[in-house]
Design brief:
The chain is α/β, with parallel strands linked by helices. Helix content is 44%, strand content 12%.
Length: 272
């Protein structure tokens, strides 16, 4: 039996009211649909926190595992002092948006097995490329907290984590936040320091099919901790997933990485 992908949330409205799509702003229409879906689920106490797009996001991750393991394998060989790698990671996070399930009507898409090589083919499609300005800024402002506004789960989520990993390992993100709290121990005063270097900004509700929530980060890390055993066929690729799970989980545990979930990213306002 062939399992079909579930229909896109807009499919019923577009089929039933064809003029609805072409007579309205697509962004307003699609946001309206996701709001109504959320409203329907929140009317049930048992389903109020249910992510009705979770299955599709999980399948998209499994579909991209070969590209993910190859990306992590390449990342493992880099010299963290080579700032030129930052430009490639920025573009990889950009083109990771090709895996947006709201664009593909819920059908999983992925990069080839060598995603870093593939982005070179997309260079001519960039209308504006300010990646070198970002590299220069990050290189000269190494005492900043960096916020990463997450978009899609699955492959793009991993590219964002790789970007954050490189920013930490290269020393480009290092902000020490002094906590106004003192511990008195044997007449010694210990000043607590929290290392908050990378903040991931995520959606607080299911949005545009594949947008990242904090639960998606937890799920991806859990899958990596098991070496992708639920989907990965090549057992030789599993150690790299486990290695980066341990590294990234330590970043979260230490406070160097943090997740901020906020409804702001789903509000009908311009991001200014």
């Amino acid at each position: 039996m062939v399992r079909k992908n579930p229909p896109h949330p807009l499919a019923f409205i577009i089929t039933t009211f064809p003029s609805f799509r072409f007579g309205s702003r697509w962004l307003s229409v699609e946001c309206f649909v996701y709001r109504k879906l959320l409203e329907a689920f929140r009317m049930s106490p048992d389903l109020a926190t249910y992510d009705f797009f979770a299955k599709q996001k999980h399948e998209a991750f499994y579909h991209s595992l070969d590209a993910i393991t190859n990306l992590l394998t390449a990342r493992d060989t880099w010299n963290d002092n080579d700032v030129s790698k930052l430009s490639g990671l920025l573009k990889l996070s950009l083109w990771g948006n090709k895996c947006d399930l709201s664009i593909s009507a819920g059908t999983s898409t992925s990069f080839d097995s060598n995603p870093l090589a593939q982005i070179d083919n997309f260079q001519s499609r960039l209308l504006v490329d300010d990646s070198q300005k970002v590299v220069q800024h990050c290189s000269s402002h190494r005492d900043a907290i960096i916020d990463i506004v997450m978009d899609n789960a699955g492959f793009e989520l991993v590219t964002d984590l790789c970007l954050a990993d490189y920013l930490i390992s290269s020393g480009m993100a290092k902000k020490y936040v002094i906590c106004e709290h003192y511990i008195h121990l044997n007449n010694l005063i210990l000043l607590l320091l929290f290392f908050i270097r990378i903040r991931f900004r995520v959606k607080n509700q299911p949005w545009f099919v594949s947008d990242t929530m904090s639960s998606d980060i937890d799920w991806v890390l859990n899958e990596m901790s098991q070496g992708g055993i639920n989907s990965l066929q090549d057992s030789n690729q599993r150690p790299i997933l486990i290695k980066y799970y341990e590294k990234w989980n330590a970043f979260f545990d230490s406070g160097m990485w943090s997740v901020n979930s906020d409804p702001f990213w789903t509000y009908p306002h311009d991001f200014r």
